[in-house]
Specification:
3-stranded antiparallel beta sheet, disordered N terminus
């Protein structure tokens, strides 16, 4: 398995907060123009959508780039923003976009947390992975000490 660090943000916030909410799908806030290329893991460490601030984009077994902008989740977030703005302005929301036909990114992009330190050790700063997820030790082997280590990744069938 190719395992390189592709950190999209350099500040780790919330590591070791004990959260095991690794099931939530997150939409990365910083996306490469050509999407996330296949064959690697990507880590966004400043996601406001995740309790641990960590959003993982798992492209390890993908053959092509993952485009986020055309996903069901990005569409739903845009609809939610429109609803909030309309409510704040006291206006009618109008017709929302139909997000159902769009592809979902849920099987590749999710909130995570650091479940092991480099070398597979654990301590009070690491988390337990939730149901349907597994700790992949040494998922990230480069970058700062706060980023290196294992992360909870979705079990693929």
């Amino acid at each position: 398995m190719r395992s390189t660090l592709a950190a999209l943000a350099l500040v780790v916030a919330g590591c070791g907060n004990g959260s095991t909410d690794t099931h939530a799908t997150c939409v990365p806030e910083s996306v490469p123009l050509d999407g996330f290329p296949g064959g690697d893991l990507f880590l966004e460490t400043s996601s406001v959508q995740c309790p641990s601030s960590i959003c993982v984009i798992d492209q390890r077994d993908a053959d092509s780039a993952l485009q986020i902008s055309g996903s069901r989740e990005a569409c739903e977030q845009a609809n939610e923003r429109r609803i909030r703005r309309a409510e704040e302005d006291g206006e009618d929301v109008g017709e929302l976009d139909d997000c159902e036909p769009l592809p979902s990114i849920a099987d590749r992009v999710h909130c995570s947390c650091r479940c092991s330190l480099p070398g597979g050790e654990t301590d009070e700063t690491t988390c337990a992975c939730g149901e349907g997820f597994v700790c992949v030790d040494d998922a990230f082997t480069s970058g700062s000490d706060e980023i290196q280590g294992g992360y909870c990744l979705r079990i693929r069938e």
